[in-house]
Amino acid sequence: MFDSISVGDKNRLRKLTSLWTWTLIFSILAAIVLLLVMISKIAGSTRFGQQLSGYSLSVESPPEVAATIGDVVELKAILTAIAGKDVRIVGAKVPCGCIDISPIPMSIPSGTSKEIVMIFDTSERSARLFKGEIPLLLDIKSPPVSIRFQLDLKAKQ
Fold first, then answer.
1. What pLDDT is attached to residue 1?
2. Three-state DSSP state, 96
């Protein structure tokens, strides 16, 4: 059957085989790139990614809150121990005296979540936007962990 293939047919067959080979190589490379992009997205936005990055605590920061200057505002964050061992929060670096955070110290058993409360006294604030981070001090080796907050303050009427 193949004895009757002419030289032109053989060249076309080689070109077709070469085309399929390059298409396969390109498809594999595209799949690898897509997989790497997906892994980086997952690693940056999930507890699994945080665990892979060495974090011992996952923080669910509170949403942005609107308030009036002079109000006392209470925000809550959810902290989850994800390192496979208990985590103890021994302190927090609050950016000003107008923020109280409790309970500290706090122990979070492995795989569980606890709520931490931040109370903001906005009476001394003049800025319309009050946002920042509160770094948490842990008793376990971990990359830096912070609670992010944002208050949109309105002037008193």
1. 47
2. coil
CA 75/CA 65 separation, integer angstroms: 8
| 8 A C-beta contact, residue 116 and residue 99 | no
Distance between CA 128 and CA 155 in Å, rounded?
A: 8
> Is 120's pLDDT higher than 50?
yes
8 A C-beta contact, residue 86 and residue 111:
no
Type of residue numbered 116: I
Nearest to 121 by CA among 101, 103, 105: 101
- 51: pLDDT strictly greater than 60: no
Asked if 36 and 121 count as a contact pair (C-beta separation under 8 A), the reply is no
Query: CA 18, 22, 27 angle in degrees (round to 5)?
Result: 150
